[in-house]
# Entry
Amino acid sequence: MDETPGLSEQYRKASPWPLFIALGVPISEIGLVFNVLPIAVGGLLLFCGCLAGMLQEAGYIDAPWRALGVMALLLGGLGGAILYVNPQVGADMTMRAYAVLASAAVIIAGVVAGTLLVPKRQQPA
Amino acid sequence: MELNAQIAVTVLMGVFLVAVATFLTRIENWRSYTPVGGGGSFIEESGYIDEEKPAGIIRWLTTVDHKDIGILYGLYGIIAFAVGGLMVTLMRFDLVTSSSLLGTSTYNALLTSHGITMLFLFGTPIIAAFANYLVPLIIGADDMAFPRINAIAFWLLPPAALLIWAGFFAKPLGLFGPAQTAWTMYTPLSLGAVGPSADAVGGAGVDLMLLGLHLSGVAATMGAINFIATIFTHRGEEVSWANLDIFSWTILTQSGLILFAFPLLGSALLMLLADRNFGTAFFLTDGGNILWQHLFWFFGHPEVYILVLPMMGIVSYVLPRFAGRKLFGFKFVVYSTLAIGVLSFGVWAHHMFATGIDPRVRASFMAVSMAIAIPSAVKTFNWITTLWNGRVRLTTPMLFCIGFISNFIIGGVTGVFLASIPIDLVLHDTYYVVGHFHYVVMGAIAFAGFAGIYYWFPLVTNRMYQASLGKAHFWLTMVGSNITFLAMILLGYGGMPRRYATYLPQFATLHQVATLGAFLLLIGQIIWLYNMVSSWFEGKRVESGDPWDLRQDNVRTVEWQWFEQKLDTQIATDGGDEEVATDGGKPADEAEAVAEERDDD
Ligand code: HEM
Ligand SMILES: [Cu+2]
# Structure
């Protein structure tokens, strides 16, 4: 927290987040395409959580909560959009929309818990 | 039952997420014990700090160092090359007889996967391997502009490969088969769910393949953004646009092409996926099939230049080293690279001459397709002129560069013929087309890849490969390629259609010749793989910072300067953690159009 990252010379040579961000994409995509709710939700949570972790590690943000809030909003919008087009397409998309909305809900719960319960100094590295 | 399965999946997913979270906290803990040394940030490091990297497998899973990621890309590309190569070996053996031994659906599945594996999982990544390792070194950057994005882009690729090959794993389990759409995924065949061909082409295997392709496209786009940002903003002080090296120029152009081509492919793939799964009708309406072809080839033709431009860059970079001269007409090579980059977006409909599109449109695409041959020829003449009166040394990388030129001429000239509408109407969808593009993709692109791998092998491994095995590899590959692909061109003249597992008896001889060539290629690649692996572990150690004796012709390039420094450091500190002991670079080594090593202020 004491460093001022952002300049290339100061990058660390290792970061655990990219691998899991990269895993989050296919997992959520498979869940959504094949309509398996738990996989879609898990993949989206993995993706968003690790994205927030990486943003923080890179020093773009101090705490993950607000970034997570924005992602939850975006997911909410996406879920809403799916519900909106649902009647116009030939397949039933309800569960897919719910999967996206459920991920948004879980993330919001995490944001609320995080901001209320985690003391400022103990925010994850 | 259904509910139980849902619960089971939910629990599994939960366990997985908790495991990931635990793993992440442990990594983070491990790191907080290792001071990061961000404090005195004005003390520039003049070497790469290795002690920040964790040990063992974790290092490779978490690295964001451009050189490590370059090596990962390289290993990935080579594995994909082996998989794609074994697939085509099976196909070639199937084609020994006029009936299909494997069965037509297996043949079609192998055909589809071979093409996609070679283009998306071997071609693009192997270029990214060279670019990641070398571009920052050559232009004097500390790393890529966005190292973490770089890592994300790489890690998207292993899942992409698993998805693309998923049908092959699922079939033995009795689930679903691999996709049989061919790499062009033309609708209505690839739509599956409608029409009489419903799911005849792989069912869920097609969906997974589309997802995998989409992932690989996202990865390529992220990489391209990274290279553009790096080359624009992270050049060393001495590196101007005027003396930027040719390889970085081609990577920059290629990244521009990727930026415009791959997102379009991604969108088209998602539209197809939506048609198959979400009940949309993008490609179901009138004109939907032509729409797909336009979208696909608007990506597809630039894609072939995405693959060939950086490889031309490698040849332009390596060939002059062993000709003992500077690259002839450097500026014109750069201009022709840019010209190809622009023109490559104006030729896509030459893949659609036989679809019945408007003849006036067709004619204009024919004109542009002919025009694109001009900058390609400019490059070819520049390479040949570079050799002229040079002190040519036939090392293995040089042999592959010369092989590249030779094969590229045949590939290019056959392409010009195809670009002519009346000829294309005869030869379209025959083996002539297959011969044409294999002369380019195997004969040129893979050859340049080998040239690069041999040339930079000492740079990466500190060891030398076995030269005699390298020569054997070259000759088997050169002879094998020309036998195989010349036979295909002749088959095309005879009217043999492409993408069939069976054929009329009169084509048997040429097919058998092609298989013989493929067999030579297989032997050559086995030799190469053995050479690489054994030399990596026990090859002769390179003692000099100039393993190619480039200094005697004054053609040494900047990455070897970095290499020399690395060797010196290893001797001085014996792999310790000291600050690197340097005194300024040696003034003698000025190479053309290259920068000094990263300065320590
Ligand atoms: C000299 C410039 C070139 C011209 C004028 C040219 C022209 C053509 C034409 C007209 C076709 C369509 C043939 C048909 O389907 O009837 C074609 C196919 C193809 N070309 Fe080229 N080409 C050139 C260079 C290249 C290069 C450099 C590459 C690879 C890096 C390449 C890769 C391909 C591929 C992969 C196909 C087949 C696509 C398919 O149908 O599966 N070509 N080329
Ligand atoms: Cu083309």
Summary: Chain B touches chain A through 66 residues (CB under 8 Å). Chain B is about 65% helix and 0% strand. Residues 242 and 331 of chain B are 9 Å apart (CA to CA). The radius of gyration of chain B is 25 Å.
